[in-house]
Each structure stands twice: as structure tokens, then as C-alpha cells.
Amino acid sequence: MTPKIAPSLLSADFLHLAQDVEMINNSEADWFHLDIMDGVFVPNISFGFPILQAIKPICKKPMDVHLMIVEPQKFVKEIAAAGAYMMNVHYEACTHLHRTIGAIKEAGMKAGVTLNPHTPISVLEDIIQELDMVLLMSVNPGFGGQSFIEHTVDKTTRLKEMITSKGLNTLIQVDGGVNLETGKRLVDAGADVLVAGNFVFNSPDPIHTIHELKML
Ligand code: DX5
Ligand code: ZN
Questions:
Q1: The overall pTM is greater than 0.85
Q2: Does 146 contact ligand 1 (Cβ within 6 A)?
């Protein structure tokens, strides 16, 4: 099945952000992947609401917002107001995950839950029926350009089995170290959405690279 491709703007040229947004608009990419980091949940700080608000009017594809922050439930309204289609919160950052998922949907967004590489899929057993998407981290979150953690392929297979056995249609997204080789194995294992930062933006022809990922 053709995967959805969500280029991560974390690897974009921030001095010419509008040009990179236009590139994605003109490509076969499906979503914009937007990585928000707070320097607490992850050891890095990226960007926040002003950037989301600035690009909102020119993004012609849905905004998939990945929150690598503590207490993401505090910002549901702001993320919705910034135009997000999907709000991804980390399982590890949410004490009352069920309540947070409800609030995200009530605000009119799709709800995604992200798992760090060490978090087993079994923690989703009693919440997956409420989710539109599960995001599996295939690197430790915080930075672009890291190496793919191999174990994620097997984790994707097992998550797909869980979703199928429950008769659900929850999407599986994978984020970190995605390229044509890792991407192909992830799609074969059942991934529906591939995030790619470094591989797209540091390639000589990002539009062609997105096309190649789309063909996996
Ligand atoms: C990492 C972010 C990713 C990152 C992926 O913490 O969540 O979305 O931008 O970058 P690459 O594709 O370069 O690993
Ligand atoms: Zn991400």
C-alpha cells in the first residue's frame, strides 16, 4: 500500500522556511510533520506556536504536530488554533492519557499517541481503540539525522497485528532515520505514514526524494 509521507520541517532551512513549505506543497508529500520540543521532555528546543501560526496560511496540506513536551494537555487549544490536523502526544508525558485524547478530539483534531523506542506497544492495549494514529519513534526523540533503531521494524509488525486483531483501522506512523531502505521495510511491516527529515531536506532533489518514498 502506498504510504503517506510526512516531511519533518525540523530539517528545513529556517532562514527560507516559506520556500521549504512551498516545496512540500508542490511535492507528493501528504502532511507537514512539525516537531515541537521543550528542552525538558527531550534534550533540545525546536520551535513553538509563532512558527506554526506563521506557516499556517501557506501550508496546503494537513499539519501533523508531534509534541515532545511535558504536560501536552495544557496546549490542546493552542495547537488546534494553530491549525493542526493531528495532535501527537507522547505516552510517556501523559498521566491521564484517556482524558487528553478526549480533549484533543473535542477540539476537532485527530488524536495520535507516540511511543519512545523503549516503550512497549502493550501499554496501548486499553487506549488504542480511541486513537486515530500511533507514532512509533525509531530514534530517541530530540534531534534529526540520527540512526534508525532496527527493533522498530519488528515493533511495527506487532503493532499492526494488534490493530488488525482488534478490527481497528488505526494508522501506524514511524519517525526517525527513515530513508528508502528503512522505509521499505517499515511499509512491508505495516507502516502507513513515514516521517522523514534529514533524508528529504539534505537530498539534492527533495521533491524527487519525496516521490521515491511515496513509491515504496
Ligand atoms: C526527532 C523528530 C523527528 C525528526 C526526524 O525527535 O521527532 O521528526 O525530525 O528526523 P530524521 O528523519 O532526520 O531522523
Ligand atoms: Zn517527529
A1: yes
A2: yes
